[in-house]
Structures are given as C-alpha cells and as structure tokens.
Amino acid sequence: MTNDWVTRKLIDAIISLDPSTKGELGRRAAAHLGLEPGRVGKDGGIDGVGFLEECKIYFQSKLESQPLDADYADNLYAKLVRHRADIGVVLSGTGYTKGLVIYWVCIRTP
Question: Which of 4, 34, 44, 61 could form an SS bridge with 91, CB 3.0 to 4.6 Å?
C-alpha cells in the first residue's frame, strides 16, 4: 500500500460525502486556517472569512468530484468583488483545469 493510494482513497471518500458534511468540513478547514467559519447551511458560498493585516480573505471549500474550471473562476471572482475580498482561497477536492489556471494568470497580469 503506497501513500498515493491511501491519499486517493481519502479524497474519494471525502468527495462522496453528502453536501452538509462537506460544508461542515469546509467550515472546519476555515477555522483551522484561523478564519471565521461561515454559517451552517446555505451560506452563499462563504465557508470562511478573515483578515490578514488590511486584506480581507474569502475562503471557499469546493470538494467536488470534477476539477474546478474557468466557469467556476468567473463565479468566484464575482463573489470576491461582491464581498469586497482582497484574497480568495479555494480548497478543491480534485484540482483545477488548465483553463482555470490560465484564467487566473490573465486576470492577475497588469
């Protein structure tokens, strides 16, 4: 049994959990990061919020079975703007598509 196999099995188990359990994991991850956890239940996508010096941090946990894509990035960016956050942190269950990575590089380039 290798560490990669164990890690993959843990990830598979987590992403197959029911939405309320995944939401609680997201809240706990936010608290572990020193952020204030979001509300239980429908939270508008906010799993945690906090500040680092003058910067507002917005945390979102997306423990999905598919990699997050550029459409997800559009949605996240809108939430960052709406909540006036300076930093967005995302916990993904299975990673990100190449399109999302390119999207973020493009909007971060001056």
Answer: 61
